[in-house]
Specification:
Elements (H helix, E strand, L loop, with lengths): L11 H12 L3 E6 L6 E4 L5 E3 L3 E2 L6 H27 L5 H31 L1
Antiparallel strand pairs: 1-2, 2-3, 3-4
The chain binds zinc ion.
């Protein structure tokens, strides 16, 4: 006689966790955890969690995942460039500041382009 764990949503521990999430005001979603297949919950904070795996990121496509990655990279570049400019203030040679300002300018332009492209895409599709 062997007990096979099959449906995680029948696991009393998991059921308990799901009940706790609902009690905290979390909303059960139609989306399912890509790892275990349990329904996901949206917390009041906006985070999406799996009762077993905790925070998961729902992306509807690989493209969307790439977009998110690119967004965070752009933010990193901007932050880095800004800190470099800060470090260079007071130096004799302003051309180096100018170089980093150009990076920031480029980042800004990319952000604007991406915002514009996103809007157009949503509108036409
Ligand atoms: Zn899961």
């Amino acid at each position: 006689m062997s007990e096979k764990p099959r449906d995680p949503s029948r696991d009393p521990e998991v059921v308990k966790k799901m009940a706790r999430l609902m009690m905290q005001g979390a909303v059960m979603l139609a989306e399912r955890c890509p790892i275990c297949g349990l329904p996901l919950f949206r917390l009041k904070s906006g985070d999406i969690v799996c009762p077993i795996h905790g925070r998961v990121m729902i992306v509807s496509s690989e493209e969307e995942a790439d977009e998110i990655k690119l967004d965070s990279t752009i933010r990193l570049v901007e932050k880095y460039a800004a800190s470099r400019v800060e470090g260079l203030i007071g130096e004799e040679d302003p051309s180096r500041i100018l170089e980093w300002l150009r990076v920031i300018e480029a980042v800004e332009r990319i952000k604007q382009l991406r915002r514009g492209a996103g809007k157009e895409e949503r509108g036409s599709k």
